[in-house]
# Entry
Amino acid sequence: MMRKCSGQFGTLSGARIKLGVKELKKQSIGIGLMGLGVVGGEVARVLMDKAEVLAEQVGCPLVLRKVKVLESDLAKPQAKEMGLQLFTTDADEFFAEPEMDIVVEAIGGEEPALDYLKRALSGGKHVVTSNKEVIAKHGAELFALAQQYGVGLRCEASVGGGIPLIAPFQQDLVANKISGIYAIINGTTNYILTRMAREGTDFASALKRAQELGYAEANPEDDVDGIDATYKLAILASLAFHCQVQPQDIHCEGISRLDSRDFKYARELGFAIKLLAIAKQGDSWIEVRVHPVFIPEESLLAKVDGVYNAILVEADLVGKVLFYGEGAGALPTSSAVVADVVSAAQDIIAGGGSRARWRLEPGKIIKPMSELETRYYLRLNVADRPGVLAQVSKVLGDHLISISSVIQQAADSVSQTAEIVIMTHPAQEREMQQALDELGHLASVKQICNFIRVEA
Amino acid sequence: MMRKCSGQFGTLSGARIKLGVKELKKQSIGIGLMGLGVVGGEVARVLMDKAEVLAEQVGCPLVLRKVKVLESDLAKPQAKEMGLQLFTTDADEFFAEPEMDIVVEAIGGEEPALDYLKRALSGGKHVVTSNKEVIAKHGAELFALAQQYGVGLRCEASVGGGIPLIAPFQQDLVANKISGIYAIINGTTNYILTRMAREGTDFASALKRAQELGYAEANPEDDVDGIDATYKLAILASLAFHCQVQPQDIHCEGISRLDSRDFKYARELGFAIKLLAIAKQGDSWIEVRVHPVFIPEESLLAKVDGVYNAILVEADLVGKVLFYGEGAGALPTSSAVVADVVSAAQDIIAGGGSRARWRLEPGKIIKPMSELETRYYLRLNVADRPGVLAQVSKVLGDHLISISSVIQQAADSVSQTAEIVIMTHPAQEREMQQALDELGHLASVKQICNFIRVEA
# Structure
């Protein structure tokens, strides 16, 4: 079934391309792999197990030439199976490999991955990476470097595991102006929220269960505080809106302040609670934020449970499209990495430079969070005496926040407090923050238990 | 913002490619459009309205060179806006246009579209089509022709409107072995089923409403009988499984035999009823079928309502991924067509032939429907007398069909009949068909009202 390459193929390195010379037929595409962890190990396995199918797709074999590993990786059974001569712990030796057309980076983290990616690109290698942090923080610089050296930089695996997302933004939706992205892109938090919603458990025990099952790390802050989601949203928003959104541009709130009572009220009011990564685009502005939201329980995103991810895109031509699947894990991530490798190999064989581009349009500003306009859910613990609701309503009214519904729970006779839940009509974030501040100073308000934005 | 093309680009026509000569820099990509109906008109509009963004993406402008229309189209305001010199009603004149690199076919139907597509491909033009019928019936022949002439044949818009589906199968999921496709790919039937489920209306009035709203045609048979879904499934299965599935290979049942009572029981039993296009692949076999199914009400596909489409794909690496969006309409379809045009233009500029391939692996057989094994829902109208359920159970038991649950409705005193609803454990289709035949001959069974397969 293996088909030999035919026809004249382009040359590979930046230097050679500048000479404009067409050289040899390409007999194979050489791959260098950095990292033999969960993702890297699986990528190596797929490249070998599926060599025949992949060669058929590309037109010639993809051959693993060199693997950069840590000392500790050399003891792994997989390393021995693959043949130790493939491995090096030395980056210089790795980059000295002459038959390497594509570098796959599966190390993760900011450094030394960033340094390696720059070395690969400026050495004229096409690059495939699953590294969300590096792309989120340094994407613009790296894409510019790729363009300078006439090679491709691909990062499909950096967001949403095996779910096709980057390619759709760069290719399938290319004729669209994208107006909004609404994404569940962190499996750990979605698992925790699903347990809290289904079982009425509190945050701490849902997190503990997620850790026991391996869905959350021992240090879960990156996930539960929303940091991981900001990396992924920065990448999606940058590609969709043709600009450079940095993680620190994104307003970010995690899920740890959610209480089982919020889920109870959400259900009563017809909502689910999800950690959403939201990006919207207007003519001159971009809005980017990650925080818990109320979404209508009949919406598709509300049905996305457990560790699954889903990304809803709104655009002028295509309307609403949604992509759903496993957002992490070795197998789905390797699916995306290998697809990128095949695409890079096809670029190399076509010889016309890379199609993987990051188009930048200047002039968009990031809208300050204070200008957000949305509906709010508000849960307050108040003194159980007459006139309190009137006081609360007055503070909200003073800030032009109008109430759409109120639930008042039967008072607790021991503490002499009552719980009030308020849903507002659309209001401005600046006004809401000021109102919350004033409510906090009212003697009758014992505690502002929570406030959650609503996304319709 | 417009960027000039740079670098050496490949030549275009099949004949020239054979000479292996590199000629001029490409200053623009010429488009020929066939058809100015709902889709064609919108494609023309997008190509003009978004010219700048598309040129940026491709590297040089996409220029509409010639539009093949019907006499009646010439009176359209759009034709006058675009300038009548662009138009011709004569196919020979259309194909004689020298500056045409890509032909977009938006005529629909089998002929003359098939003839035009062959002319375009054998004339060395890259082709983009939204024509599901031609691709479903003649895909293999047309892809072979494209390969022979070194050009691309793209058909993203033929299935699922603007939802990226073909590209994911051909690119993003390229490292996967796809085991199953479960698709809601006909908006008309999904709209009708949604109304029947929500409002308890019968098929005839739900169809009438769909026709009034323009969601169903005056002659709705292609949609409601499942024909349209078989075209789309033939395309998806062929691409996903690397084989040639013809529409006539697909077992097909429409939705007209569904009754409001079936929806009532489905809800009681925890299911939704959807018209699913299902394709599964084993080592040596393929299973392809379109018919109404019971699916668990908590599954994502069960939540896909109205005219929306959704396609669930199961594969070895990526697990489950789902694509959701508007499956029809001028805007979404034009999104897919124009994305294909951009991709073809990028191929032309890269000069290395086309990436759009249809890989064929021989040796798969289509599993006969009789070998299907699944659960069944069965609704019977029986005489209201003792021992009837025992008779029915015996017939099923004789065919190794075991019952998982039974609902028996209170008898109707006038007709002296009762309704029995049976859910079975997994059973073989051959046995079920024989059992249905025998049940039909029992004196106590007045009518086999319906039987519906269950997909877990």
